[in-house]
Amino acid sequence: MKNWQRDSVGIEVFSGGARFVRLSSRQEKLELVDFGEKLLERGLSAYDRVADGFGRVLPGARVKISFLGQGSQTYRLNLPPELLSAGLETLKWELGQKLAPKKEDYEMVVQAVGEKSFLGTALRRKLLEQIALPFVKKGSTDLSFTNAAFALVALLYASGLSMEGSVALLNLGEDFATVVVLDKGEVTYVSEIAAPPGYLEGAEGELAPTRELLQQALLERFGIELSTLLHLLGFRASETGKVETVYLCGPGAGVAALAATLGEIGGVRVGHLATPLVNFPSEERAERWAVPLGLALSGLCERSWPLAAAEFLSI
Questions:
Q1: What is the share, in percent, of the chain residues with pLDDT greater than 90?
Q2: CB of 146 within 8 A of CB of 64?
Q3: Do residues 85 and 99 both lie within one domain?
């Protein structure tokens, strides 16, 4: 690990709230300073309340925020070799070609996630202003926005997990499942699919018998949908024609029925996306915090791309 002194905070925003992880790098040691979750109330001032809840961890740290849904769109930029070294404006132009006619309504962010891989994120300006201002008021002076896919790739590079063959990262969030496929270490596919409402119910508690049966059926259908997607992606995003390994993370990673369905129907090896470099308390499932952790890891180093985080941590 490089001897840099820096604190970073990763924040994952979802429809019902936000969760954060703060890391500190001091004297070649990486420390989990704090982590937590704050639920949102409805209303225009919702992000003010999130910033209030996170106020104690924002000052003095580089802050990276990801959010999904109507406010953002994420794309893998499939660029010809002659454009791989193009300037930022050219890459943003490529991203703009994928958007609706009103490109001026979006702030465009382009980030490298490999030697040949770029992710483009289009963020609605109005939502950016709504989210950013409360955090700035609470002392955040180094604030940037990205996407969950970027965070997952950063965490994979810092995990020490195998990336042989074709690997899928599946973040099962409250609202969306973020899917990233890497083939030989390069991102070949990224998407977000809507998660069925209520699929997380009973993940951490008991349900009435009738409700449990309905929930099991819901999870089975969702698992089949994900397995079918991974099967199709094997042909589209992998030279071998098959996704061989899936690493699960997010709140839904603890739902045993989904992991079982992916393994049985999808015919893939199933593991969890986490890193031994950051130790959460034993009662916490580390993979639940994958997105904010990946964001925080990428915020520690000077170059904000996943492989740079791995180099910084000497993986």
A1: 16
A2: yes
A3: yes
